[in-house]
């Protein structure tokens, strides 16, 4: 069967609608970066703007009278933002006497990548009413301002290989340790359609905005929380852009469990044999980073990974990194009056096993409360490097690719697909992909990756041949 799509659609998928919705309590129309809750996932903006529409009961029911005087309006607002996993409040605006209801900028602790937040809005009106607070969810995805936020993910696929698949496991998943949050990020100039465990994720098709992709590319965030099982398979179709010939994808999948454990899988392809390694770099690394700045650790030239965290303290540690022949690497010492006791654990989970790691040095990056309020803090870290071992972000079978169902692709005439080449159940665990090729790494995209914040085309109905 051949299905033909006409422009501007460049990709399609016959699927059953599976809406992604977030329940919002009765009240104003809450939006983050102008996105409704179903689209406010995977934001790349770390200082988002909040908006709402004032819909008091008097206005909704068009009432007038003593309790609904003419000219009644919003006179105040208060916004509280909470980390869903930890329950910590990261911003409380306090009571603000203002009728402003759009572009209210976040002004709290640094928002962390791959983290879900809830924001609660309390409004006050000129007639004295204070309706029940409204709340909604949003989550931060992979901000380009955060170093190494995509981890070890590589660009894979090409114009003759637009269908990808891989399998991965979440062995820790159980009834007592359920999934809290799971997302799949797919960056592609021409958009994408994602399948998981035999089902299409979402009801959106892979039509991409018109971008040349020379300086900026968009990634799409898929909510896979309800799709993840102990053993999983993901399949991806890549599309082409209306004005660009770039066809490749970059993928990062993360699964957050109730016990705090995080499973990460990233796209990786085969590489040509590496050149002979240069002389080994230093056996240790150390750094001191002030609060609100970015910490980045990098071992050697890529042949080594961080194997151990010998020192980490967020607070007011003393000492410094030392350089010079015959000297020790650092003279760091913990200040017991001001130090996050989980500093070593936090840095170990983030960095061990990676060639490079980074984070924003702030209270929200650490699990304990602020170790010493109203004190300017910094982070001192020392780590050991060793020869690279398999990355923990490669908790998957080998990535595979093949041509897929796209038999003709033209920016103006549309896309023709032969659905018999799709492969039945190619996103099911145990699918025979022995006839597929190993995914190959392509030339990396060097521009800015940002979240797609507009709704793509949706499946309206399924037409039987």
Q: Topology of this structure?
A:
Elements: E1 2-5, E2 31-32, E3 49-51, H1 57-60, E4 74-83, E5 89-92, E6 104-105, E7 115-125, E8 134-140, E9 155-156, E10 163-169, E11 179-188, E12 192-196, E13 199-200, E14 216-223, E15 231-238, E16 249-257, E17 262-266, E18 284-290, E19 294-298, E20 304-315, H2 343-351, E21 356-360, E22 378-387, E23 400-402, E24 406-410, E25 414-418, E26 437-438, E27 448-451
Parallel strand pairs: 14-27
Antiparallel strand pairs: 1-25, 2-3, 3-6, 4-5, 4-7, 7-8, 9-16, 10-15, 10-23, 11-14, 11-16, 12-13, 12-15, 16-17, 18-22, 19-21, 20-22, 23-26, 24-25
Characterize the structure shown:
The protein contains 2 helices and 27 strands. It has helices at 57-60, 343-351; strands at 2-5, 31-32, 49-51, 74-83, 89-92, 104-105, 115-125, 134-140, 155-156, 163-169, 179-188, 192-196, 199-200, 216-223, 231-238, 249-257, 262-266, 284-290, 294-298, 304-315, 356-360, 378-387, 400-402, 406-410, 414-418, 437-438, 448-451. The strands form 7 sheets. Strands 9, 11, 14, 16, 17 and 27 form a 6-stranded mixed beta sheet that branches. β12 (192-196) and β13 (199-200) form a beta hairpin. The N and C termini lie close together (9 Å).
